[in-house]
C-alpha cells in the first residue's frame, strides 16, 4: 500500500504527515474538523496503541504534558517520583505497617468474670473481648480451688503460701488465690496491653496490687531463668498452668516445669488442658491427685503424696 505524501489529507482531514501505517508504535493523530462557517474549528487528540515496542516512557509523558494532559491518567506506569516513593515505603515497611494499623481494630474489655470466694468475693474482673485471651471457665476455677483446699486439709480456705500464675492473662486465677488466703502471687504474662489494661486494673480494683508481682516475659524464658526472676525464695506452694491450647507443646512444657526449681516436694500444680492431650501421672516428685473433664476442657492437679490421704479423709 502506498503511503500518502506529506501534503495528503484523509477524508476526515487527518494530517498523515510522517505517519507510518505499518508501525506498531502508539499513534498520535491531529484532526482538524471543518464544517459550516458558523462552527468554529476544534482540535482533539486520539491515542491508539498496539502491542510491541513504542515510545519510551519519558517520551510518552513529555508528549502528553505538551498537550496539557496528566500522564498518570493515561499511562499504566506511575511517574518516576511515585514509583520511587512506593519503593521507599516498601523498603522501610511503612506501607505495610500503615495497612496493618488501619486494619487492626482497637482492643476492648468487658466485665464478665468475677471472684468466686474469699475476701474479694463477687467482685467483677475485666477480660478482653474476643478470643486472643481465654480465661479459665468459672466452673473449672471453682472446682480447682475446692480440690486444692480439700487436699491441703483446709476446706474453707487455702493454706497460706506463694502462688505462681503462668500465662496469667486477666489474672483471675491468681486473684482468686489471694482472695482465698495466699500471701503473694507472681503473675507471668507477656502481652503488654493485657498487663496494662486488664491485669493491673483488676489487681487495683480488688485491692491486691501490693500482694502481686508481675513478670512481663514469656513463660518459657521465665522457667529458664527462674532464679533470676524470683530470687532465692525457693519453690512455690501453688503453680497454675493455663496456656493457650494450640500454642504450646504440653509434653515439653510439663517436662520443663517438673525439672524447675520452682516446684518443691509440697507444691501443687494445676494444669488446664484440651481434649486428646496425654498428661503424665506425675510431675517430677508430685503425683496426680485428680483429673477431671469439663466439656472440652480437662483439669489435672498434681500434689505431694500426703495430699491424697487428706483429700480422702475430708
Q: Could you characterize the architecture of this molecule?
A:
With 314 residues, this protein is of the alpha/beta class. 33% of the residues lie in helices and 24% in strands. It is built from eleven helices and twelve strands. The strands form three sheets. Strands 7-6-5-8-9-12-11-10 form an eight-stranded mixed β-sheet, with helices on both faces. Strands 1-2 form a two-stranded antiparallel ribbon. It has a two-stranded antiparallel sheet with strand order 3-4. Pfam families: Cons_hypoth95. Residues 67-109 are annotated as: Disordered. GO terms for molecular function: methyltransferase activity. One of its GO terms (biological process) is rRNA methylation. InterPro entries: RNA_MeTrfase_RsmD, SAM-dependent_MTases_sf.
Q: Which properties best describe this structure?
A:
314 residues, alpha/beta, eight-stranded mixed β-sheet, two-stranded antiparallel sheet, 11 helices, elongated, disordered N terminus
For the report, how would you describe the main beta sheet?
Answer: 8 strands, mixed
DSSP E strands, number = 12
Q: Number of helical segments?
A: 11
Helix/strand-derived class? alpha/beta
Report the order of strands and helices: EEHHHHEEHEHEHEHHEHEEEEH
Q: Compute the average pLDDT.
A: 79
Q: Nearest-angstrom radius of gyration?
A: 37 Å
Unreliable segments of 5+ consecutive residues: 2-46, 48-53
Distance between the termini: 110 Å
Task: Sum up the overall morphology in one term.
Answer: elongated
The spatial strand order of the largest sheet comes to: 7-6-5-8-9-12-11-10
| Content of β-strand | 15-25%
Percent of residues in helical segments? 25-40%
